[in-house]
Design brief:
The complex is a heterodimer of chains A (255) and B (327).
Chain A: H1 2-15, H2 19-43, E1 48-50, E2 53-55, H3 57-87, H4 89-93, H5 100-130, H6 139-163, H7 167-183, H8 196-203, H9 206-219, H10 224-251
Antiparallel strand pairs in A: 1-2
Chain B: E1 6-17, E2 25-36, E3 40-45, H1 51-58, E4 66-71, E5 74-75, H2 80-85, E6 87-90, H3 102-112, H4 117-130, H5 146-157, E7 164-168, H6 176-191, E8 195-199, H7 203-209, E9 212-217, E10 220-225, H8 227-231, E11 237-244, H9 249-256, E12 262-266, E13 269-275, H10 280-291, E14 294-301, H11 304-312
Parallel strand pairs in B: 3-8, 3-9, 6-7, 7-8
Antiparallel strand pairs in B: 1-2, 1-4, 4-5, 9-10, 11-13, 11-14, 12-13
Helix pairs in contact in B: 3-4, 3-5
Bound molecules: adenosine-5'-triphosphate and magnesium ion (MG).
């Protein structure tokens, strides 16, 4: 536990050296919701039909924004590996008296705290400013979805951040991955109306799983059985990604 | 558990790097070496000899390709965590948190090594004082000069006391005063019972500090022993320095015919290294001194640098016969 706390303390010291960064982390999803969300909310003035119900776009998009925010924090954190590698400190970490898992878990715990703050802020202001009809009794589910989402995406990206040695290649990878994951998912629109092939891709996309779960938890849309199957799939994705990240840390850095 | 006599045991160690592009590189090629507990062990060798590679393996950063390695009696591959609990490292590459202050660099390091928070401040005071960092405590490391950054990195390991300390060229870029402070701190740590594993290109540093010296080349051990043993590898070599009133071309031509191990000239002075069983120099000198006044004549026994140059500079030639090598 001492080691995990030490990693968290270090992440905290680093994050708080840059207030801009911290501010960006906390308010980025809100800006998305306010700028992008409001625009589409007006464009789809009659609301979106999701399953049998009709919801306002703002309410629909809230879960998408939270998913994006988790992914955003995961990008920043995994990008930190490049900064640490440039500083040389990364290899020194690996000589500290901790396991590779403790190193990753410490990093992710700190970032989960950040994600939770960010999600709470987004949800709260979404309700206050945009009158999103939030199901308050499901808030614990939202928070669970945020923690699992941040961790899943972080472990997923870590494996690539550690294997790809060039910063610019990682950037390209992130751009392409983010683009595909985001648009071939239920993040911006309901998947029911999509063409069959895109719907099939979306159904196997962890970003859809997380978003559907969060949508169920925030505004109650979706079929409970399907949503919990998706949540289970996401947890499997998380565990596999964690295993791959730890394995890469063990063997894949210096060969 | 009783501690083993050797802090480090390396047996038939091979490391082959397999870069993504290009051919595999054999960085360590069947290395055997032991480091005794409580000693300062110096690893020397040319660039690319395999020093850092060995250090990376010993510090559990990288697995060996084959061979067996134990550190503090524990297997490097199965008991990495236990080994890491008992060691600390200064890597060859810079390793500092650029965006944190000097103080925060020291305190985060201490936390990673499980130093209780209430002790951190006192330790940081002592360490910053010792490494001349007090006035920079609150500055971000990114704003410090290269040598100061290195000082921060080295200072970190003195925030903790571990039985085993690895230092890969620790004094690179430091000014003489801080180099001295670093050497003193290393020696103190050894006196307190720690084992120090050090690589360096500064041979006087190794000569002054190390109880045992190993010279590696192309991943193989070339020589191993204490300083007298290493020096005995070039049998009784002597460093000489002669200053003539005027060093003429004729004298120079005469001198150049002698079988020097090393030879250099600066104005009227020549510095060279000879074998002490080779008396031809003294005969020649006696002859030359009749035609030209000798202002200064000095003879010293060979330094580690002479041995290093002799063992490592190029293939043996007829006038530089291969010396007895041990391993
Ligand atoms: N990550 C790597 N991938 C491929 N080859 C490597 C890698 N690291 C080192 N090498 C090669 O292994 C050999 C030994 O390198 P090493 O860094 O151990 O040398 P060194 O003795 O520490 O040299 P120096 O005195 O310059 O620090 C060199 O030929 C080097 O090019
Ligand atoms: Mg090196």
């Amino acid at each position: 536990m001492t080691m995990i706390l030490a990693v968290m303390y270090r992440e905290y010291r680093i994050r708080t050296t840059s207030m801009t960064w911290l501010f960006y982390d906390l308010f980025m999803p809100l800006t998305y919701l306010l700028l992008f969300g409001i625009g589409l909310d007006r464009a789809f003035d009659t609301g979106l039909s999701v399953g049998e119900t009709t919801v306002r776009y703002n309410a629909f998009f809230l879960s998408g924004v939270i998913t994006m925010a988790c992914f955003g924090i995961a990008i920043n954190t995994s990008y930190g590996f490049f900064v640490d590698r440039d500083n040389g400190i990364f290899f020194e970490f690996l000589t500290y008296p901790m396991t590779r898992s403790e190193f990753l878990i410490g990093k992710i715990l700190f970032n989960c705290v950040l994600s939770l703050l960010q999600a709470l802020l987004t949800v709260l202001l979404g309700v206050l400013l945009l009158s999103i009809p939030l199901l308050w009794n499901r808030l614990p589910l939202v928070l669970a979805g945020v923690v699992a989402g941040t961790a899943g995406w972080f472990f997923f990206l870590t494996t690539f951040a550690l294997r790809i040695r060039r910063n610019d290649m990682f950037n390209t990878f992130i751009n392409v991955a983010y683009f595909v994951l985001m648009f071939a998912s239920s993040l911006f629109y309901p998947t029911e109306q999509l063409p069959a092939w895109l719907r099939a891709v979306a159904a196997f996309n962890p970003m859809t799983w997380q978003t559907d779960f969060l949508r169920f938890a925030t505004i109650g849309s979706g079929n409970g059985g399907v949503v919990f199957a998706e949540a289970a799939a996401f947890l499997i994705f998380l565990l596999i990604s964690f295993g791959a990240a730890v394995r890469t840390l063990h063997r894949g850095i210096l060969r | 558990m009783s501690l083993p006599e050797n802090a480090i045991e390396v047996h038939d160690l091979v490391k082959v790097y397999r870069p993504r592009s290009g051919a595999p590189v054999t960085a360590l090629d069947g290395l055997n070496v032991n480091v005794r507990r409580g000693e300062i062990f110096g690893l020397l060798g040319r660039n690319g000899a395999g020093k850092t590679t060995l250090l990376r393996i010993l510090t559990t950063l990288m697995p060996p390709t084959s061979g067996s390695v134990t550190v503090l009696g524990r297997d490097i591959e199965r008991e990495g965590l236990e080994i890491r609990r008992n060691m600390c490292v200064v890597l060859q590459e810079n390793a500092v948190e650029l965006f944190l202050s000097v103080e925060d660099n020291l305190s985060t390091y201490a936390r990673f090594h499980a130093i209780p928070p209430d002790q951190i401040r006192g330790r940081a005071d002592r360490v910053t004082e010792r490494f001349g960092l007090s006035e920079y405590r609150r500055q971000k490391v990114i704003d410090l000069s290269g040598g100061l950054k290195r000082r921060v990195q080295v200072a970190k390991v003195f925030m903790v006391e571990k039985p085993l300390v690895f230092l890969d060229e620790p004094t690179t870029g430091m000014d003489p005063i801080n180099k001295r402070a670093t050497l003193d701190a290393i020696r103190e740590q050894a006196l307190a019972g720690g084992t120090i594993f050090l690589t360096t290109h500064i041979l006087e540093e190794a000569e002054e500090l190390c109880d045992t010296i190993a010279i590696v080349d192309k991943g193989k051990l070339l020589a191993l022993g204490d300083l007298p043993t290493i020096k005995s590898l070039i049998p009784s070599a002597l460093d000489i320095s002669i200053t003539f009133e005027l060093l003429t071309d004729e004298i120079l031509a005469d001198l150049r015919r002698l079988p020097f191990l090393t030879f250099s000239r600066k104005r009227n002075t020549i510095d060279a290294c000879i074998r002490s069983d080779d008396l031809s120099l003294f005969q020649t000198l006696a002859r030359l001194a009749q035609s030209q006044r000798v202002l200064h004549f000095e003879v010293r026994s060979a330094t580690l640098e002479d041995v290093f140059l002799e063992l490592l500079s190029g293939p043996p030639s007829p006038d530089r016969p291969d010396r007895g090598r041990i391993s």
